[in-house]
Amino acid sequence: MNANAIDKAANDINNTAQDVRKDAHNAVDKVADKAQPVVNKVATSLHNGVDQVGEKISAVSDSVSSASEKLMERGKEWSAAAQRASETGRTYVRERPATSLLVALAAGYGLSKLLGARK
């Protein structure tokens, strides 16, 4: 083989390599251009999903907080009612000790009959 043939073959290979490289870059660019809208759409959907989950968690947190506040308020009301009932009972016993003793004896007797009948 002579030097011209080798140079020509090398030049042809180099040109072919350049053409293949150019075609590969064009193919990658086309795929990237077509994939970008899909990637953007998926990213947008994921962001929306995360936002919705965050909103749901926030709503649940608010509901739990509200329920907790209501329970605490009810507990305070029940505590106050029990304290009032206790004070009313003490006042009744102080004002009517004989009647209170008879009621307590009757209640005790009734409970012993109820509980004794179960044996």
Protein described:
The chain has 119 residues and is mostly helical. It has one domain. 96% of the residues lie in helices and 0% in strands. The chain has two helices and no strands. The protein has helices at 3-95, 97-117. The longest helix is centred in the middle third of the chain and has 93 residues, at 3-95. The protein is rod-shaped and about 135 Å long.
Average pLDDT value? 87
Q: How far is the first residue's CA from the last residue's CA?
A: 120 Å
Task: Please count the beta strands (DSSP E, at least 2 residues each).
Answer: 0
In the predicted model, the low-confidence regions spanning at least 5 consecutive residues are: none
Shape: rod-shaped
What number of domains? 1
Radius of gyration: 45 Å
| Count of alpha and pi helical runs | 2
Instruction: Give the SSE order as H and E letters.
Output: HH
Q: Percent of residues in beta strands?
A: under 5%
The helix/strand class is mainly alpha
Largest sheet, if any?
none
Percent of residues in helical segments? over 70%
Summary tags:
119 residues, mainly alpha
Quick summary of this structure?
By secondary structure, the protein is mainly α. The protein is about 95% helix and about 0% strand.
Outline the secondary-structure elements:
Blueprint: H1 3-95, H2 97-117
